[in-house]
Automatic annotation (TrEMBL):
Keywords, in A-Z order: Cell membrane, Electron transport, Heme, Iron, Membrane, Metal-binding, Transmembrane, Transmembrane helix, Transport
Membrane topology: Multi-pass membrane protein
Protein family membership: Belongs to the cytochrome b561 family.
Domain of life: Bacteria
Cofactors required: heme b
One Gene Ontology biological process: respiratory electron transport chain
Subcellular localization: Cell membrane
Positions of transmembrane segments: 25-44, 64-82, 103-126, 146-170
Main location per the UniProt record: membrane
Entry GO MF terms: electron transfer activity; heme binding; metal ion binding
A cellular component annotation (GO) from this entry: plasma membrane
Domain Cytochrome b561 bacterial/Ni-hydrogenase: residue ranges: 19-179
Record-given protein name: Cytochrome b561 bacterial/Ni-hydrogenase domain-containing protein
Length: 180
């Protein structure tokens, strides 16, 4: 909805091609999965160990995020193959590019540690069994700690990402238009 007297944000000069339809769909899919997994993952820690909602989240989230892995790989592949939009541009564009790379790297780390830290096999959609890959208790504990730290780093990066999007919109540079 556009508010009265609010100028429509102008596209950034020099930005001709927006993201492809596939990249846009994959961006919003991963935003939904990552925001859900982050808020619910940290949120349920406030509940009792045996709270039914906590138990449900702890069973549902590993399935959801495992299903997300091929979509993330697809998205990463499309981003790697895309021509360098930010190359040879100003400092701000280079910072944005570095932030996006940091987000991709951290998501990859969160997914890898998540899969490795499973302390029991996961039944995907009650159909496909995903085996427990690591059995050493010490290694599992360390992976859990790493998963926790990477999730916190990812939450910080996503907060910065959202702040940057809001800042651009407020200044009248529509980065959201490129992603819609
Ligand atoms: C989109 C990627 C993911 C995000 C954003 C995410 C986020 C989180 C968060 C915020 C926590 C709570 C951290 C803590 O309190 O230590 C957590 C815990 C956990 N995650 Fe992930 N995760 C992701 C992927 C995965 C994957 C792929 C798996 C396994 C297949 C997984 C398995 C787990 C497990 C087993 C826990 C511990 C739950 C418990 O304390 O019993 N995660 N995750
Ligand atoms: C509601 C939340 C979100 C909004 C409004 C949003 C908005 C945007 C916008 C407008 C862009 C284009 C920026 C540009 O071209 O300079 C973008 C790109 C990007 N966003 Fe988000 N985003 C959100 C959530 C997320 C989350 C949770 C992630 C974490 C995976 C993420 C990762 C990225 C990445 C990596 C890019 C670079 C383009 C690409 O490779 O697809 N975003 N986002």
């Amino acid at each position: 909805m556009t508010l009265p007297n609010t100028p429509s944000p102008e596209p950034i000069p020099g930005e001709t091609s927006a993201y492809s339809r596939t990249r846009i769909v994959l961006h919003w899919l991963s935003a939904a999965v990552i925001l859900w997994a982050t808020f619910s993952g940290f949120g349920v820690a406030l509940l009792d160990q045996n709270d039914p909602f906590r138990l449900w989240v702890e069973s549902f989230n590993p399935q959801l995020t495992s299903l997300f892995i091929p979509f993330f790989a697809w998205r990463l592949w499309l981003a790697i193959r895309a021509p360098g939009r930010h190359s040879a541009k100003n400092v701000q564009a280079r910072l944005a590019s570095a932030a996006h790379k940091a987000i991709y790297g951290t998501v990859a780390g969160v997914l890898i540690t998540g899969v490795l830290m499973m302390s029991h096999p996961v039944m995907l959609l009650a159909l496909v069994p995903l085996p427990q890959l690591i059995h050493s208790k010490i290694a599992l504990l360390e992976l859990h700690q790493l998963h926790h730290v990477l999730c916190a780093v990812l939450a910080g990066l996503v907060a910065l990402h959202l702040a940057a999007v809001v800042l651009h919109q407020v200044r009248g540079k529509s980065v959201l238009a490129r992603m819609s």
